[in-house]
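In response to the reviewer comment on reproducibility (Comment 2.3), we provide here a single inverse folding case reported in full, input and output, so that an independent group could reproduce the run without further information from us. The structure tokens appear first.
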């Protein structure tokens, strides 16, 4: 290839490149509306300013007709004048700031079980499987005892024991077990049960479900008025979500964790060896004998109902698997009478 031919070919390539660049510039100018023959940079600035001015003018025209801009016309109503609605503001604040003075006074300054650790813990469920079990002494022999929903112990001590380190109290318990404190007699019955805790942690899930605020307030009032020796704890709703999330992550498809499963999960944080009593979500025992839902009342429950917020048989299956693996001890039936 001669030098003259290479020079000629190189010149053609240069011309094509310049042509393509000019075509691209022309297309860009056409897209953004730069008038033909003006400097590109000047045209861009001018075009953007012109477009901004046109948009502003259009917005002002639209606003003058409708009272709002087109972009917000579907969500912002026209209003001739804004005025502060004090009554509505107070109403919203009262609905969101639902912590009473009594509850605030009972909030612990630090977690009641902070820096505490126990070798052997017992978690006592409320199934009727405990009746005639004779497990009371064995339960009381543990270093720490957790009970559920303020279940009575004195009249059932042979089967369920007496010691309590922590006891839960769902707000619904006040309604179901103490008749919503409709009389002084029921208030006194609840008061006696709270006095029996003598230094225990009273776990009140006041924030875990809607409703029940009045019942929680009644309990708080009794504690303060009578200077009861209890350590109150008010768990966050986030704990419920965290516990459920933990089990779901481990492929245990529970709905809302029962109090028993919640307490077991909690106990794994401060107990080495965990023993479960009164966990039996079935209407009959292993020999076919009827078993009460609660050992202390006549309440009935449909364990397999789709409308139930809990999945008790599934939880029990999970706990049984952990029992077989040695992670916990599930006690069913009679206990050793020698203890």
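Designed residues, in position order:
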């Amino acid at each position: 290839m001669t030098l003259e031919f290479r020079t000629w070919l190189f010149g053609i390539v240069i011309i094509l490149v310049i042509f393509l660049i000019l075509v691209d510039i022309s297309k860009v100018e056409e897209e953004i509306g730069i008038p033909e023959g003006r400097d590109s940079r000047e045209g861009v600035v001018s075009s953007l300013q012109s477009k901004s001015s046109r948009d502003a003018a259009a917005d002002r025209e639209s606003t003058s007709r409708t009272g709002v801009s087109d972009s917000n016309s579907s969500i912002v109503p026209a209003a001739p004048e804004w005025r502060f609605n004090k009554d509505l503001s107070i109403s919203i604040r009262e609905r969101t700031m639902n912590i009473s003075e009594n509850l605030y006074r009972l909030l612990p300054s630090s977690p009641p079980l902070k820096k505490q650790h126990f070798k052997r813990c017992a978690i006592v469920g409320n199934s009727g499987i405990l009746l005639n079990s004779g497990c009371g002494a064995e339960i009381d022999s543990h270093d720490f005892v957790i009970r559920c929903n303020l279940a009575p112990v004195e009249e059932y001590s042979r089967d369920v024991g007496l010691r309590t380190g922590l006891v839960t109290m769902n707000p619904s318990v006040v309604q179901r077990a103490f008749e919503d404190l409709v009389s002084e007699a029921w208030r006194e019955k609840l008061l006696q049960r709270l006095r029996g805790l003598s230094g225990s942690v009273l776990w009140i899930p006041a924030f875990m479900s809607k409703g029940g605020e009045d019942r929680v307030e009644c309990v708080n009032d009794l504690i303060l008025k009578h200077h009861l020796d209890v350590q109150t704890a008010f768990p966050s709703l986030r704990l419920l979500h965290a516990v459920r999330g933990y089990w779901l992550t481990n492929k245990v498809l529970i709905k809302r964790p029962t109090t028993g499963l919640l307490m077991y999960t909690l106990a794994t944080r401060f107990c080495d060896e965990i023993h479960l009593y009164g966990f039996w979500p079935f209407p009959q025992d292993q020999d076919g004998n009827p078993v009460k839902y609660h050992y202390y009342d006549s309440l009935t429950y449909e364990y397999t109902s789709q409308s139930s917020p809990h999945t008790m048989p599934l939880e029990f299956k999970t706990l049984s698997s952990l029992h077989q693996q040695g992670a916990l001890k599930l006690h069913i039936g009679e206990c050793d009478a020698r203890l």
